[in-house]
Every structure is written in structure tokens, then in C-alpha cells.
Amino acid sequence: MFLPLLDYLAESYGPFRVFNYITFRAILSTLTALIFCLALGHPIIKYLKNQKYGQVIRTVGPQSHLEKGGTPTMGGLLILGAIIFSSLCWGNLENRFLWVLLFVISSFGLLGFLDDYLKLKKQNSDGLSGKAKLFWQILFALLAVSFLYISAETPQETSLILPFFKNFSLELGLSFILISLFVIVGSSNAVNLTDGLDGLAIMPSVMVAGGLGLVAYMSGNIIFSEYLNIPYLPNSGEILIVCGSLIGAGIGFLWFNTYPAQIFMGDVGSLSLGAALGTIAVIIRQEVILAIMGGVFVIETLSVIIQVTSFKLRGKRVFKMSPIHHHFELSGWAEPKIIVRFWIITLILVLFALATFRLR
After folding, report:
1. SS3 252
2. How far apart are CA 63 and CA 115, in angstroms?
3. Is 199 left (phi over 0), alpha (psi -120 to 50) or beta?
């Protein structure tokens, strides 16, 4: 939004050329989203309370969660608003990757909003049916990845890249669409499953966005990409602007979402954040790196799959409750301890994933 004006001003006044640097605009994007959330957080919480948009707690969950009933939900609207506003302010609106990400964030956010709204209307934890939710997730993801496939300018944009392998690059062809669908939809649901404790999902999302944003910036820089032996993807550096806005929005939201939470993000936040991370990984061809960085999300999802499969086949549960953060709750761990330890694990995984770029 501001970039054309800033480019015009840079022609007559040199210092404005600083806005040509993606890193500088990413910092501004982060700060804009952060200020957006901090400024509007209290008014939105007050509005949601007045509208009685309080979280409906599942009775089958840990009993300690029942006291959280009535806490305002759909706080993801604050996150989405901050990301979209900040990205439009500081991003290059001619960049196709920027628009793909904004489409995914908006569409998955709309789906999550509808799910949250139905839960509030029915006053139970049943929103959209699982089949309906999955159908729309696949449809939105299909539109995004189909555009990426059709608009690809280089073979690297649709090739499989693996960490630890220096020169491995397998062109996927139409398989790119299928794999990308799995990554985006899987990532969306993984973050959604993780969002069960105050601040548990938002901080790992911030860390993973930071890691992916750094990789996106390096992928869009021919010097860094050659040095690290990663595919050079022209214009992918602009993704750092969206990652910056996600980081700022996430930290700003955490101000109100930290234990004990004043507001929950709801599906409108978790579905869209997860889809955004998956889409970023698809664009920069680092799906495996996403799985490493988002190991907490992967473990949460696997715990549910293992629990359901074991109960159906053996009639026995592996965990006291799934997702696995509930298992630790029922094992006597305090909620803040679980949250912070999962944050620490995510930080370690993000750093390890970044280190793999020199272990090739």
C-alpha cells in the first residue's frame, strides 16, 4: 500500500531508499501488527464479552478447564486483522506469493469463524461437521496450490527438496498439488489441535514463522541461496513481510492470551495460522523443514491419531487424554509448565532445522 509512494519519494530524497530493503519493511510489518493488536486488544475483548461470545468448554476435557468457560473467543479475528493490515501496508502488492498467503489466511479464517460462530450459537463444542470442515479446507488449499503450480516460473518452485542432501531436487509435476494439499490442510489442523492451553499454539506459530521467514528471505536472495545450497526462488523474499506481520500479531495477541487467558483465538485463528505456515513452507519448498520446526504440532497430531487408532483396534487408550498436552495435565503438570516447555522444545527444533542448512 505504501510501497509505490515510498518508491516515488525515494527518487527525490535518498533516505527513503531504505524502504527498498525487505528486512526493513519486515521490521515495520512486525511493529505495525504488534501495535495493532495491543491497541485493539482490550476493545475487542470488551466487545466479545458484551456480545457473550464466550468459549464453550467440552465436558469431556480436563475438569480444570471448566472454569475457563465464558472467556471470550474468536480472538483470531484480531490476529488476522493485524496480519492482513500490516502485510498490505508494507508488502509489495505486485508479488503473487503475498496474495496467495493473504487468500489462504482469509479463507481459512472465514472457515474458522463460521465454525466458532456455530459453536456459540448452539452453545456446545460442535461447530461445523468434520467432513464439511475438511471439504472447505481442501477446496481453499486446492485453489492456492493450483495457482502456485500454474504460475510457477522455474522448475525449483514445484520440486521436492530434502534437508541433509546437498544436491537433491526431484521435480514433482502434478504430484506437487497433492503433496501441497496434504501439507497445508495437515498444518492447519495440527495447529488447531495444539490450541488447547493458554498461549500453547500462538508462540510456537510465532517461532516457526520466524524460522520460515528467514529461509524465505535467503531463498529469494541469489547469494544466500547459492551459499546455503537451497533453491533460488525469485521474489520469495517478500514472504518475510507476512512472516513479520504474523510474528508481531502473535506476540501482540499473546499479551492477552498468556495464562490465565483473557481471550482465546478460536478456530478462526488456529486454522488460518496453521494454513499460513503450511503455505509458506510449500512456496519456499521446505515442507520437511516445517515438520521439523513444527515438531510440537506434529506430536500433538500423532498423539490423537495413535489414541484413536489404539482405541478402535485394541479398545485401550495409550494416553490419559489426547492431544498429548491433556495427557500431561492429567499427569499432574501445571498448565504454565506444559506451555513453557512446549515453547522451549519448539525453539530447539527451529534452531535445529535452521542448522540443517549447513549440514548438507
Report:
1. helix
2. 24
3. left
- Tens digits of residue pLDDT in 3-16: 666 665 666 776 76
Phi (first) and psi of residue 163, to 5 degrees? -70, 160
108 CB contacts (<8 Å, ≥6 apart)? 137, 140, 188, 271, 272, 274, 275, 276
Stretch 325-333: mean pLDDT, rounded? 93
Cβ proximity of 314 and 301 under 8 Å? no
Chain centroid offset of residue 215 CA: 15
What amino acid is encoded at 181 in this protein?
Answer: L
Q: At what angle do helices 96-122 and 266-283 cross, to 10 degrees?
A: 160
Whole-prediction pTM value? 0.93
Residue type, 48: L
Cβ neighbours around 355 below 10 Å, total: 10
Helix 335-355 × helix 202-219 angle, to 10°: 10
CA distances (Å), 120 to each of 71, 114, 202, 262, 268, in order? 12, 10, 22, 17, 13
Contacts of 81 (CB under 8 A, 6+ apart): 36, 40
